[in-house]
Amino acid sequence: MNAPRPGTPAADASQHLIGLHDMPAARMTALLDRAQYFAEGHDARQALAGIAICTLFFEPSTRTRLSFQLAAQRLGADVLNFDASTSSTSKGETALDTLRTIEAMGVRGFVVRHKEDGAVAALAAAAAPGTAVVNAGDGRSAHPTQGLLDMLTLRQAKGPDFSHLKVLVVGDVRHSRVARSDLHALRALGAGEIRVCGPKALLPDDGTLDGCAVSGDFDASLAGVDAVMMLRLQRERMEDGLVDSLEDYHRDYGLTVARLARAAPDAIVMHPGPMNRGVEITDEVADGPQSRVLRQVGNGVAVRMAVLEALLGAR
Amino acid sequence: MNAPRPGTPAADASQHLIGLHDMPAARMTALLDRAQYFAEGHDARQALAGIAICTLFFEPSTRTRLSFQLAAQRLGADVLNFDASTSSTSKGETALDTLRTIEAMGVRGFVVRHKEDGAVAALAAAAAPGTAVVNAGDGRSAHPTQGLLDMLTLRQAKGPDFSHLKVLVVGDVRHSRVARSDLHALRALGAGEIRVCGPKALLPDDGTLDGCAVSGDFDASLAGVDAVMMLRLQRERMEDGLVDSLEDYHRDYGLTVARLARAAPDAIVMHPGPMNRGVEITDEVADGPQSRVLRQVGNGVAVRMAVLEALLGAR
Amino acid sequence: MNAPRPGTPAADASQHLIGLHDMPAARMTALLDRAQYFAEGHDARQALAGIAICTLFFEPSTRTRLSFQLAAQRLGADVLNFDASTSSTSKGETALDTLRTIEAMGVRGFVVRHKEDGAVAALAAAAAPGTAVVNAGDGRSAHPTQGLLDMLTLRQAKGPDFSHLKVLVVGDVRHSRVARSDLHALRALGAGEIRVCGPKALLPDDGTLDGCAVSGDFDASLAGVDAVMMLRLQRERMEDGLVDSLEDYHRDYGLTVARLARAAPDAIVMHPGPMNRGVEITDEVADGPQSRVLRQVGNGVAVRMAVLEALLGAR
């Protein structure tokens, strides 16, 4: 599902989904179209009948695992869960041995989460030709299905033409794989204006924000935007000394009803969850009429269905 | 599945199963009739085909979870397990956010266990209109499917007319959600005489025992009863200082073959499990001809099938 | 699946699979024939439709559990996982109560692992007539499906006639249930020569090696063999004082490319996994052309399908 490298046949290029940085807009749009079909309640119980898929999480995440599991079930696949954060790797087996072993059992698809950047890509590179690896989040690098589900949510609210949209991403972009995948997708789909806002210590300086309008002033950044994509503030940031206190963070970067009034009247609010209510977002906004947080969750299953079907279905 | 409140349409009233205190006898009987059909080995693999059910246990219980899982599988549902005692709520997410998130993924049924009284009812009250919540045990309040499976077991042994039955409930009624659900069900089905026996410190004084014949004398209470429902003695009761020792408890309230001889000759013995063998019940009784302990376990799956089908099947 | 005891009807004898010590060669061959069919990619999704199988692991092993789970799914069974190493037995319930309880829920097949020798056989002896118990490894005694999958792997490489084969088993035979099951199977199928090699402290003196050519000299033992079956070195052996260091062990009993050159040119290398790379086997050998390690893993699913189908399918 990565863009074809020169000289690489297209079929090989779409064996895995590692990130969105090199996915062509046409492929992204096709996945979103199919995801929209699934989001409307359609199943495809024969699509992956007889195919086994394993979730392989080296970093725990029940929500994301359940979402992929539901997606696989609605496609008729057999689903296995391997919690690598607690189980077999305690015997000293490497991640690659674990993947190859389960692959040798006949499992065709792997949904992998890992705390290290690039770990999922490395596993995918070593997988057998018939195996598909989907990145369910690696380090700070990428969380491509989250990026896609956010685009689906935006599209449902604002239509397929992103060229007039002003989108604001707020918070700890520096440590966020969600933000990186969102930014790649917004660029690919031609978003009109991408703004990024957060405390300087939480913004990356590595080219991630190229082409974005960057600011530390939340109130100013909100002016007239069509969508606000809030990020979760990890509590480790306090321990890292990057944020002084939750109170300070909330005062400067917490989304309240009063602040949201600066955005366009029909602006939508998104958050990848789980939310720190009272920190980066208030209850009123999280549960308010402009929130699309639960819609994002539902779209997550639909997007994962589209991805698994595209990678593992009959070709 | 709760009794209709005035002005509330019946369909809404039967959205959830929280407790048995307000379930009309007619509804209870209909569920038991359907459970009897399932107990005879029938499946209904199409009943919940395409419907996803999630077990959501904030307090661990492998036995009850497996029983619900088997019930859901025999109805053709997709089953997910969420062990909330270890996993995601560590990120600070509330129980309600967890339920709403999984609900947003398209899950239609939740089987919830929680250590706090009323927690399951609170979650049910906040669930979406199409969602069904089944209480798999909350605090000391209710364990309605256990109550129903106990009634099914009684009915199989003694027939559908409970008006001539003498039933004895023995042990730590004060801390037992099983006992509370059993007492509600026995009253609803018109049991002739309900006796309760246990040490004073383990009997409730809150109205739970209204209408029951209460005694601290186990030998006397057993005289002529048709069924003995033993309760599990939690070891915490020693730490609480409510019970002196397991030996003392066994001497006064342990069911032995000799004691059981005081009951009716065809009396049955029940226990919700897991049993403390040698404490509240001896091996000879637990494994003897009058024991219905394993029958109760089998009936548990049947009752849970009937409940899930009634709440989530085509209406 | 054990050999009939005198006076015992055959049907009863094949209720369980506990070990290979008493399995007739004809039955073993029939299972391997069927496993070969499954290894070629065939499913039998109706074979166990509607039948529930529970993995019941009192000692954790994710790999073996996943392999059985995949096998059961490809036979259409409902699969439940019970991690007895962490869950319910914490309430003091015995292993037998746990099995009987899940059996009473309608589960027909149990895949059991236990750290104590004979524990699985004891559970099987107490199971109900219609229940099948498969030993997924008990203590040092037996791991029969591993023995069968190793035979299937040998047969695929060397053909069905074992009478001319020289097979070498290397390592900690004393503590290995895998080795014991392999030796039983090799004898049953008439292997021409069985050699065993390892440090004296890790070889059993209890009759396990009767009829084998035993040596402490790895280089000499390798001469001309058709198959090398390496065993995993548990790190506990150092703590036990049975092995001085991993370096010493590797020097004396590690399989390297140079050493492997002493075997027959077309010799195959096997290992039950997970491998201690750099200890009992080098990367070059583990991933080399003579390695059948991943083939063994694939054969594991096929063998387990054959076993579950034989024990639980329509008779």
Automatic annotation (TrEMBL), chains A, B, C:
Entry binding sites for L-aspartate: K91, R177, R232
Annotated EC: 2.1.3.2
Catalysed conversion reaction: carbamoyl phosphate + L-aspartate = N-carbamoyl-L-aspartate + phosphate + H(+)
Biological-process GO terms, alphabetical: 'de novo' pyrimidine nucleobase biosynthetic process; 'de novo' UMP biosynthetic process; amino acid metabolic process
An annotated GO cellular component: cytosol
Binding residues for carbamoyl phosphate: R63, T64, R113, H143, Q146, G273, P274
PROSITE patterns, per the entry: CARBAMOYLTRANSFERASE
InterPro entries assigned to the protein according to its UniProt record, in alphabetical order: Asp/Orn_carbamoyltranf_P-bd, Asp/Orn_carbamoylTrfase, Asp/Orn_carbamoylTrfase_sf, Asp_carbamoyltransf, Asp_carbamoyltransf_Asp/Orn-bd
MF terms (GO), sorted A to Z: amino acid binding; aspartate carbamoyltransferase activity
Pathway membership: Pyrimidine metabolism; UMP biosynthesis via de novo pathway; (S)-dihydroorotate from bicarbonate: step 2/3
Database matches in Pfam families: OTCace, OTCace_N
Keywords: Pyrimidine biosynthesis, Transferase
Residue ranges of every copy of the Aspartate/ornithine carbamoyltransferase carbamoyl-P binding domain listed in the record: 15-156
Aspartate/ornithine carbamoyltransferase Asp/Orn-binding domain boundaries: 165-310
Keyword Transferase (UniProt): yes
UniProt xrefs under HAMAP family: Asp_carb_tr
Family classification: Belongs to the aspartate/ornithine carbamoyltransferase superfamily. ATCase family.
Subunit structure of this chain's protein: Heterododecamer (2C3:3R2) of six catalytic PyrB chains organized as two trimers (C3), and six regulatory PyrI chains organized as three dimers (R2).
Function: Catalyzes the condensation of carbamoyl phosphate and aspartate to form carbamoyl aspartate and inorganic phosphate, the committed step in the de novo pyrimidine nucleotide biosynthesis pathway.
Name of the protein in question: Aspartate carbamoyltransferase
Organism: Marilutibacter spongiae
